[in-house]
Automatic annotation (TrEMBL), chains A, B:
Annotated GO MF terms: alcohol dehydrogenase (NADP+) activity; butanol dehydrogenase (NAD+) activity; metal ion binding; methylglyoxal reductase (NADPH) (acetol producing) activity
Domain called Alcohol dehydrogenase iron-type/glycerol dehydrogenase GldA: residue spans: 9-180
InterPro entries: ADH_Fe/GldA, ADH_Fe_C, ADH_Fe_CS, BDH-like
Keyword Oxidoreductase applies: yes
Keyword Oxidoreductase: yes
Lineage of producing organism: Bacteria, Pseudomonadati, Deferribacterota, Deferribacteres, Deferribacterales
Name of the protein in question: Iron-containing alcohol dehydrogenase
Domain (Fe-containing alcohol dehydrogenase-like C-terminal): residue spans on this chain: 192-360
A single cellular component GO annotation: cytosol
Amino acid sequence: MNNFVFCNPTKIVFGKGQVQQLNSLIPENAKVLITYGGGSIFKNGVMNAVKEELAKSDRKVFEFGGIEPNPKFETLMKAVEIVRKEGIDFLLAVGGGSVMDGTKFIAITAPAKEFYGKEEELLYFGAKGTPVKNVLPLGTVATLPATGSEMNNGGVVTKGTDKMPVFNAGTFPVFSILDPEYTYSLPATQVANGVVDTFVHTVEQYVTYPVDGRFQDRTSEGILQTLIEIGSKTIEDPKDYDSRANLVWCSTMALNGLIGSGVPQDWSVHMIGHEMTALYGIDHAKTLAVVLPAMWRVRKDQKREKLLQYGERIFGITSGSEDERIEAAIVKTEEFFNSLGIKTRLSDYGLKSADIKDILANLEKHKMLALSERGDVDLKVSEQVLKTAL
Amino acid sequence: MNNFVFCNPTKIVFGKGQVQQLNSLIPENAKVLITYGGGSIFKNGVMNAVKEELAKSDRKVFEFGGIEPNPKFETLMKAVEIVRKEGIDFLLAVGGGSVMDGTKFIAITAPAKEFYGKEEELLYFGAKGTPVKNVLPLGTVATLPATGSEMNNGGVVTKGTDKMPVFNAGTFPVFSILDPEYTYSLPATQVANGVVDTFVHTVEQYVTYPVDGRFQDRTSEGILQTLIEIGSKTIEDPKDYDSRANLVWCSTMALNGLIGSGVPQDWSVHMIGHEMTALYGIDHAKTLAVVLPAMWRVRKDQKREKLLQYGERIFGITSGSEDERIEAAIVKTEEFFNSLGIKTRLSDYGLKSADIKDILANLEKHKMLALSERGDVDLKVSEQVLKTAL
C-alpha cells in the first residue's frame, strides 16, 4: 500500500426530509447566497423547501441562478461580483455537479484579493490547487448523483474550450444534504449519466496496478457491483427509494478521496473526455463511456493484473487466456453502459477520424502529455485510444 | 437505507516514516502533553522519533505515562491535573487504544469547569455524549491496530468494575499518524486481538437485519475478507509490511462511522464483553470471541437474512437448509478466531456457570437491558447467550 493523507471534513446529512436540518447547519447570522442552475429546483419543490427552512432564521438571503452545465467562468464571475458587493459570507449550492463545482469556484475567487482583475488565472493551477486562503464556506443541497462534488474539494470550470479542474484545500462543503427523493425528477438520461460517471470515477482509482490495497479494492468493487445491480432499476423506476439511495451514496463515496487513498490513480479517461465535452458539448459521462473501453484495450498490458481481477470479481470471468478474459471484461463493461442507454463509440456521437486531431491539439494545449497512473499516456497513446474508440 | 449523519474530520497520515509530518500537524506554539502507556514506545523507538520531530519547534512538551490497558479513571485524573496546572493546550496520544481512549477522556475532563470535583459523572453519559464544549484538541501516533480510536470520537474508561463508553463531538483526533511499522514490535497475542476486535466491530454493524445498504454491506464484507486473508500472516510474519498495512487500515475503517452509517447497529456483544473484562480482566477481543458465536446462535432468527448473506459472501456457504448454513457460518467464524490462537468458550478462560450471575448483575447495574439492533437483548437473552458460550 502506498503512503497517503486522507482527510474529508464534510458533514453528510443523508435521507428523506433532511432539508429540515438546513437551518441548524448554516451560521445563524450569515449572509447567504443561494446558487442554482436552470430552474428545475423550482419545479420539483426543492427550492421552496430550502427557502422555507432558511426563513426560520433572520438571515439575509440572496440568489444567483443560471449556472449552466459545464459551468462557465463568465457566468460564475457574475456571482463573484454579487458576493463582493453584498458581503456574502456563506454559499449554498442547490443543484447538481455543475452548480456545486461552480460554487466552489465562486468560494475561491470572491475573497481572492491577490487575483482581482486576473481571476481567470485561478483556472490553471490544476490538481496542485489554487493558492487562495480563507475561501468562503459553502454547503450543498445536492440534486444529482454523479460528480461526487458534494463531498470533495474539486470542481471543473469551463472557459472557451478550456475545461479545467479547480481545487482548493478549503472547498470541501461544510455540509451536504443528500435526499435521494430530490433526485426523483431527474430525466432518465441524466440518471444514466450519473451511473456511468460514478462507475468510471471508481475504475480510474481501481483499474491501475496492484499495490495490495485490499480495503480500497474491495470497496471499489462494492461500488461497481452495486451500480450494476441498481443501475437499470433506478433509471426505469426513479421513485424506488432504496435503489436511488444506493446510487446517491455510491456516487458520493466514489469520489471523496477514500477509495483512492494509498493506491495509484489513473484519470486519463477523464482528461481526454473533458476535451471532447469542451469541443463538442458531449455529456461528460458519455465521453467517459467512449474513452474507457478504448483506453483499456490500448493499455491492457499496463493494467493486466487489475483488469483480470476486475473481470473475475465483478463479472465472474475466470476462463480463457488472459487476453480473452480481459477482452471479455471490457465487452461486459460496454454492455453495461449500453444497457443504460449510453453508447460507447466516438461515431455514435457523430465524431469522425478527422476530429481526433482537434482533441489531441486541446490535450497538447492543456499539457496533458503524461497521463495515467504510470504517466505513459502521451499524445501518441491518446491518439491510439481515440482511433480505437471510433 | 436509513437516514444518517456522517462526519469524520480526522486527518489520517498513513504509511512508512509519516512521523516526519508531526511537527507540521501540531500548532506552532502549543503547549503539548504527550500521553503514553507502559513504555513499549521507548523500546521500539517510537517515542524517540516523536520527540525528535517535536524538537524541531520551540514548543513546551510535557509527558504523562502509565496509562494502563482498560485505562482507569483515577490514572487519567492525574493527567487532568497536569493539564490544568500547566495550561496544556494540545494532547498527543502515543500508543494503542487505551492511550487514545484515555487521552480523549483527559481532553473532555480537563477544561470542563462545570464538572470540577465531580468528574466521574462524565463517565456515565453513554452514547449520547458528554455535555462538554471546547474540549482540548488531540492528535495520535497510533501503535496498535484494533480499536479504531484513532479515527473516532469515542473511548472506554474504567472505574472499579464499571467499564464505560465515553463520547464527545469534539474528541475526533485532529490527526492520526498510522505507520504500520510502528506496530511490528507488538506481541503476537495483541495482534491477534486486534484482528478479532476489528472483525467484531465490523459484524456489529453488518450482521443485523437488511435495509438495502449495499455500499455499507460490501465495504464491511471487504474488511472481513481482508482480515481472513491477512490475519494469520500478519501474526506469523509481523514485518510483512503490506499485510500489516491492510490490518491497520481495516481496523481504522471498521470503527470510524462509515460502515455503520445508514444501517442498524448491534453492539450487544461488546456490552456483554465489557462486563467480562471489567470483572475478570479478560482481554477485550477475547471476550468478543466468546460472546459473538453464542449471540448468533441464540439470535439466529432475528439475524437470519444477514447471517445467510454473511455465510455466502464471506465463506461461500450455499448448500444445506438455512439453519445448517447459519450454523456452518458460525463454526467457520469460530475456526477463524481459533486459527489466530483466540479461544471462543467461557470455560477456556476459567469461567463457570456460577459466574454468569455476576456478569448479569453488572449488566443490570449499567442498565444494559435492551441491547442489540432490535433492543431485544434483555437480561434473559444475555443469560441464554452466556450459557450457550460456556
